[in-house]
Amino acid sequence: MTSVTQAREAARTEDTSSRWRRLLLPAGVAGVVAAGTAYVAAVDPNDPGHYPLCPTFALAGIYCPGCGMLRATHELTQGDLVGATAMNPLAVPMYVGLVVLFVAWVLARWRGRSLRWDPPTWMPAALAVAFVAFTIARNVPGWTLLAPA
Q1: Coil, helix or strand for 131?
Q2: What are the pLDDT digits (tens) for 58-83?
Q3: How far is 45 from 68, CA to CA, in rounded Å?
Q4: CA within 13 Å, CB half, 34
Q5: Could you write out the DSSP letters of every residue in 76-89?
Q6: Mutual angle of helices 69-77 and 91-110, in 10-degree steps
Q7: Contact 51, 42 (CB under 8 A)
Q8: What's this model's pTM, rounded to 2 decimal places?
Q9: Cβ contacts of residue 56 below 8 Å, gap of 6+?
């Protein structure tokens, strides 16, 4: 075997092993998320005493944008999409977005690139306004559509 062929073979072997090493962090994150999700699937948040109260609801008596997220996750793990949406209408779109982001991260790591996103300068302000608007809408008396079921 020539030295050029040996060098190519060594580079191919090194590239394959380094690719798998780059996926260790996403694999660890996936494992932790899977374990947490399995716990929420097994221990129903609708039964009192298993999880702490939402601090915003406990202290201020209002629903925050995350209220109902544990119950929505439990409903999703049981295959109940309608029930999850009733608990928190943002749960399903948020989880879909997180899965897309995770897949993009894994692909970027596999290719040896970093995942970068430079949001427009108006994005943080728009998210803050949406956060406040959703909080207010969830707490308007009579608007039960957005409140946790």
Answers
A1: helix
A2: 999 999 999 999 999 999 999 999 99
A3: 9
A4: 6
A5: HHTT-HHHHHHH-T
A6: 70
A7: no
A8: 0.80
A9: 62, 63, 64, 67
